[in-house]
Hints:
Blueprint (H helix, E strand, L loop, with lengths): L17 E7 L2 E5 L5 E5 L3 H13 L1 E6 L7 H14 L2 E4 L4 H20 L10 H21 L5 E5 L6 H5 L7 E5 L7 H4 L5 H8 L4 E4 L2 H14 L4 E3 L4 E6 L2 E7 L6 H8 L2 H13 L4 E8 L6 H14 L7 E8 L6 H21 L8 E5 L4 H10 L2 E4 L8 H9 L6 E5 L5 H4 L4 E3 L4 H13 L2 H17 L2 H12 L25
Parallel strand pairs: 1-4, 1-6, 4-5, 6-7, 7-8, 8-11, 12-13, 12-15, 13-14, 15-16, 16-17
Antiparallel strand pairs: 2-3, 9-10, 10-11
Helix pairs in contact: 3-4, 9-14, 10-13, 11-12, 11-16
Amino acid sequence: MSANSDTQAAQPHASRNLVVVSNRLPVVLTCDAQGGWHACAGSGGLVTALLPVLRNRGGTWIGWPGTDAGDPAVERAAQQAGAEAGYRMATVALNAAEVRDFYLGFSNRVIWPLFHDLQSLCDFDPVYWRTYREVNRRYAQTVARHAGAGDFVWVHDYQLMHVAAELRSLLPDTRVAFFLHVPFPPLDVFVKLPWRMPLLHALLQYDLVGFQTQRDRRNFSECVRALVPQAVLTGRGPVTEVRVAERRVRIGSFPISIDYNWFVRRAASTEVAQRVHELHGLLPDRRLMLGVDRLDYTKGIPHRLKAFRNALARFPELRERLSLIQVVVPSREDIGAYQALKLEIEQLVSEINGEYSKPGGWVPVWYVYGSLVAVDLLAYYRAAHIALVTPLKDGMNLVAKEYCACSIEEDCVLILSEFAGAATQLQRGALLVNPYDIEGVADALRRAWAMPPEECAARMRAMRRSIRRQDVYWWLDAFLDAAFAHELRGIPHVPVDGAQPESDYLPF
């Protein structure tokens, strides 16, 4: 399906209004010097996929505007932005204490580390859980004001897992689905959550629960089997069913993707090509290796830097021949663990450059701390001979897919963590590594640097073909068809262009 395509209007869900619920709205609101609020369009695959559907079928996007709670000017700005975009927008007001305990607290000090297998970083403060439920109730109340019995409510991500439990009494006949963008942990990790039972039962209040990978779906199924003995799980394949009393809940894996054609077109533009030329001029006679990550301890940035240092020590031929551009996008800087991570990254960069830099010449690590405009990010993708995407754990990691889409010359190599959700789809083309294995990652760097052009091209071509088939519109169709499967008269969903999901055979 092309980037300008919408999901098929002939399908049963085409006539329903779509109500999208996410932690944040799909716009960025800013205040000018005169106190007026203005909205700028947001970015990302979710926004790209869902906005055409909202515009053409009618719908509402509900979320927190990211600003002061209850400001009428903020609400008006959001409504105006929605009207200009062709759909409705509704805000959920949060005060400073709620942002602290719901978002920074339960969402990012409990669920985020726990679901990424880093439970030692969790802070199980009971206040966080109470506020999480209260805020999810607020979201549900906002949904109830904007949705009707015939509408389809689609809730997104770990901040809002409890919405359906709060919504059932308000809109008992409304179909409500949920998609988890982060991993779902295995049973032995999930049971460490003090509120595991109410959270699990809350997820079972949705009509469809979607995950990134089959492994995440299996983890959820095992938690249901172990903790909800009255549950009956039936079916096989990417979408199965859980029956609890009178409720039937579908659970499935739907790997999210990118707008492949958009990235290809933009990467091939004259403006990006000029930036690529400038980058190679600034860093001549060497190959470029790229890391692009949000500041987060799940991304494995220190491990990656240590692996690069190990490679420089063990493989002298890489010195003055390979430079790492590490981009770190600021995130959650008011959380102590993130402040400590930033200092650790900066210290490692300083140590590596201090040990290996040549005066007036080669610098091993070019460290960029800040957000990039689109043209610069695309130029980095296209200029890099090697991409290092090595999270310790990731739901999907779209950087890997964006890099492949932008690699239009197909003369480059993706090194990918086997613990990223994207590894399931890209395992046949990427060099898969264990990010905890410093020497193993260093060996992969050396292999990627020396890889013959024909092998680079074959691997990259296979990954780009897969991403082109299973793009963000394929993901949207697959999820909506699963949500309305009983209205499709038992006809199984066939992904766009006949593509089938890659097998999930990674050994963990």
